[in-house]
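Data deposition worksheet. Section B asks for the primary sequence of the deposited chain exactly as it was used as input, without tags or linkers unless they were present during the calculation. Section C holds the resulting structure in token form. Section D is free text for depositor observations; keep each observation to a single sentence. Incomplete worksheets are returned to the depositor.
Section A, Depositor: J.P.
Section B:
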Amino acid sequence: MDHGVTGFLVRLGTTQGLAEALLRLIRDPELRRRMGEAGRKKIQVYSLARVLAEMSAIYIKFLEKRPSRPPSKSP
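Section C:
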């Protein structure tokens, strides 16, 4: 997460920090809109289609570099 861009980071266990971040969001609709938009853009990086395409590309690259095996002899 990018503090102030896609959300707010607050210290664990600090209710004061959480309360301040929530109040800031409640009072600023434009900030909520920008953060929501930035979050949606960021999450697209992790879409199922993209992750599968990137993983497939890695496997294909690996398989292309792998030395070919001689054909096995059938008994």
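Section D:
The mean pLDDT is 86.
The chain is about 60% helix and 0% strand.
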